[in-house]
Amino acid sequence: MTKAAAFFDLDKTILAKSSTLAYAKPLYDGGLLGRRDVLKSAYGQFVYLVSGADEQQMDAMRAYMSALVKGWPVDQVKAIVREGLSAVIDPIIYDEALVLFDEHHAAGRDVIVISSSGTEVIEPICEDLGADRAIGTQVEVVDGKYTGEILFYAYGQGKADAMQQLSEDEGYDLAASYAYTDSITDLPMLEIVGHPIATNPDKELRAVAKERVWPVLDFEKPVAMKERSRDQRRAAAGAAAGAVALGAAWYARSRTRK
User: Fold this and answer.
1) Is the torsion defined by CA of 17, 14, 210, 190 positive or negative?
2) Which of 176, 195, 198, 225 would bridge 209 by S-S if both were Cys, CB 3.0 to 4.6 A apart?
3) Is the CB of residue 83 less than 8 Å from the CB of residue 26?
4) How many CB atoms within 10 Å of residue 147?
5) What's phi and psi for 145, nearest 5 deg?
6) How far apart are the C-alpha atoms of 258 and 180, rounded to whole Å?
7) Binning pLDDT at 50, 70 and 90, where does residue 28 land?
8) Given CA atoms 116, 134, 91, 214 in this order, what sign does their dihedral have?
9) CB 135, CB 158: distance < 8 Å
10) Structural contact between residues 112 and 7, judged by C-beta atoms closer than 8 angstroms
11) Which of 16-30, 39-53, 142-156, 180-194: highest mean pLDDT?
């Protein structure tokens, strides 16, 4: 049988906001962000929600985040992310995305989240959602702290390259696989699979989807995950925890081969 996967962007596809910017207050409370950074993050969130993030904005965000996280203790960041899951992430999850997770799992497909947010941010989120793997931006760590050097930026063509490499590693047939994203900057991610789906698309991606006759999904306002839904996901999330960790190791493996 053909082995296939469903690849999901995270921000504005599964979540209604940027996962990284959503953690501005918890990071401030933890002493990692200053008041000025919190205000800047709030403004960035507003711009992201209203207009989406274009290539120039994403490059600017990369430079900003690279400088910002330099010197942060990795274990502290992981702890803040996990502690903030219920307060920060649960209220901004699209229920429609979770339904898609279930449908793909029922069809025997692995669910893989690939996001420009850092791995330490997206891995706990993906465990909680029951995803099978997570691939995010990799920042160099030395002596337990971020150096600020970005080793791999999960953005644009980088996402497509990661999907290609993972598919070679795991035997996924990309022609039988699915991809979901909201941004025109992720066009390479959609073009590499046989089933591209524009999800909550920005204006540019919506136009491309119309031209190429791709399916378009528009999710409703997110609501907090219901306890019933959470209970149903606990078993899947627990089983997926080890598999999600493999996503973090993907980049290290691919670099070792080069």
Assistant:
1) positive
2) 198
3) yes
4) 15
5) -130, 150
6) 29
7) confident
8) positive
9) no
10) yes
11) 180-194
Q: At 168, which helix (H) or strand (E)?
A: helix 157-170
Residue 163 or 16, more confident = 163
Instruction: For residue 75, indicate whether it is catalytic.
Output: no
User: Is the model's pLDDT at 211 over the cut of 70?
Assistant: yes
Mean local confidence (pLDDT), 90-96: 89
Q: What does the pLDDT look like over 5-19, one tens digit per residue? A: 999 999 889 998 877
In the chain, where the domains are located: 5-257
Q: Is 132 a catalytic residue?
A: no
The mean pLDDT value of the chain amounts to 79
Pairing of strands 110-118, 5-8: parallel
State how far the Cα of 26 lies from the Cα of 165, in Å rounded to an integer: 34
**What's the CA gap between 80 and 27, in Å, rounded?**
7
Contact 88, 109 (CB under 8 A): no
- CATH for 5-257 (3.40.50.1000, 3.40.190.10, 3.50.50.60, 3.40.50.2300): 3.40.50.1000
Q: Within 10 A of 17 (CB to CB), how many other CB atoms are there?
A: 17
Convert the pLDDT of each residue in 118-149 to its tens digit: 888 889 889 888 999 999 888 889 999 989 88
Question: Which residue of the set 9, 132, 186, 202 is catalytic?
Answer: 9
Contact (Cβ atoms closer than 8 angstroms) between residue 137 and residue 150: yes
Cβ proximity of 215 and 223 under 8 Å: no
Most distant pair of Cα atoms in the chain: their distance: 54
Q: Which two tokens stand for residue 125?
A: 């989120």
